[in-house]
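Example 9 (inverse folding). The structure is encoded as follows.
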């Protein structure tokens, strides 16, 4: 038994398909091993904004680690690999107030030892611990079962970026794109391409994310113009590049496919021009 367990640990490797651990616009570099006051850097810093969603890199279970060093989380992947999420949020509001402890660090309702799916919401980006006062970011580490740290950079480059964080429940959800900019409208293909500004996964809070999304527009979708004198019906052909619209999707099941949101996977339920 001991030999088999040891062999399994030695064979553990990062899966070929993973979810990028932060949803939204980020920057990161290959800073693994860079000098730091306490020694060399043992992960990659994913620069983001406060309260941005952090998601499970692969399926597994979580270990929450709140403490004096900040708000942290371990994701124990089904592969046997372990991932550290460090500097999670400790602020109540939009500024660095340090008033939340770790009560706002983790996904609502996330329990110690809970199983999570790939891409599921596990926490929120912040600046807790020794990152206090600098740009919010996620310090992300990759560990072998033995504890050996690996450079995350190659794995991050291969990970799939997601449009939204998957909730724990499997209930149908909708997305709302507020003040999105029309990129193009194709009446022949019944598609609308918008550049999002802020995304809200109802009923959760929204998060900033500038991203092009191609939506199918079924015939039953409600397209309307709202002015000071009232509402009027709108056609897809009337939408021109540069217009600002509010878009709501039809209900859909949260899944890896819808999180990736390839062209036409998500459908618009309502498009409002104001």
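The amino acid assigned to each position is listed next.
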């Amino acid at each position: 038994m001991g030999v088999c367990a040891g062999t399994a640990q030695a064979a553990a490797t990062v899966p070929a398909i993973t979810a990028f651990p932060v949803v939204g616009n980020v920057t990161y570099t290959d800073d693994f091993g860079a000098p730091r006051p306490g020694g060399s850097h043992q992960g990659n810093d994913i620069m983001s904004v406060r309260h941005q969603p952090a998601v499970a890199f692969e399926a597994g279970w979580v270990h929450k680690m709140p403490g004096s060093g900040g708000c942290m989380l371990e994701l124990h992947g089904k592969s046997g690999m372990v991932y550290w999420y460090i500097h999670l949020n400790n602020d109540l509001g939009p500024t660095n107030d340090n008033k939340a402890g770790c009560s706002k660090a983790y996904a609502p309702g996330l329990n110690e030892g809970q199983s999570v799916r790939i891409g599921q919401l596990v926490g929120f980006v912040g600046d807790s611990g020794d990152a206090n006062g600098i740009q919010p970011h996620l310090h992300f580490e990759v560990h072998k079962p033995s504890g050996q740290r690996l450079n995350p950079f190659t794995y991050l480059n291969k990970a799939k970026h997601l449009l939204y964080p998957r909730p724990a429940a499997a209930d149908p959800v909708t997305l709302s794109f507020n003040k999105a900019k029309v990129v193009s409208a194709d009446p022949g293909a019944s598609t609308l391409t918008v550049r999002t500004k802020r995304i809200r996964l109802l009923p959760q809070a929204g998060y900033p994310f500038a991203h092009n999304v191609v939506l199918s527009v079924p015939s039953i979708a409600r397209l309307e113009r709202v002015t000071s004198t009232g509402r009027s019906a709108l056609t897809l052909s009337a939408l021109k590049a540069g217009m600002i619209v509010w878009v709501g999707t039809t209900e859909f099941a949260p899944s890896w496919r819808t999180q990736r949101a390839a062209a036409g996977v998500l459908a618009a339920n309502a498009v409002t021009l104001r």
